[in-house]
Design goal:
This protein is an alpha+beta fold. The protein contains two helices and two strands, in the order H-E-E-H. A hairpin with a 2-residue loop joins strand 1 and strand 2.
């Protein structure tokens, strides 16, 4: 969450796979999962530097498009 806070306008949605059978089926062996724009960014371990780079790229892409 700290990395995402560096990017104003980025919406963080935290979900539990226990609340959604589709998410449970898809990710039960891979939590935690980080999605950026609906695409899997990372599973199991989250690197702050890698996440920062991906969010930077995503925000640039979203601003351009």
């Amino acid at each position: 969450m700290a990395v995402a806070a560096e990017f104003p306008g980025v919406e963080i949605v935290e979900q539990s796979i226990l609340d959604d059978p589709d998410l449970f089926d898809r990710f039960s062996e891979e939590i935690p999962v980080v999605l950026i724009d609906g695409e899997v960014h990372n599973i199991w371990r989250v690197s702050a530097e890698r996440l920062r780079g991906a969010l930077s790229e995503a925000t640039r892409s979203n601003e351009a498009g």
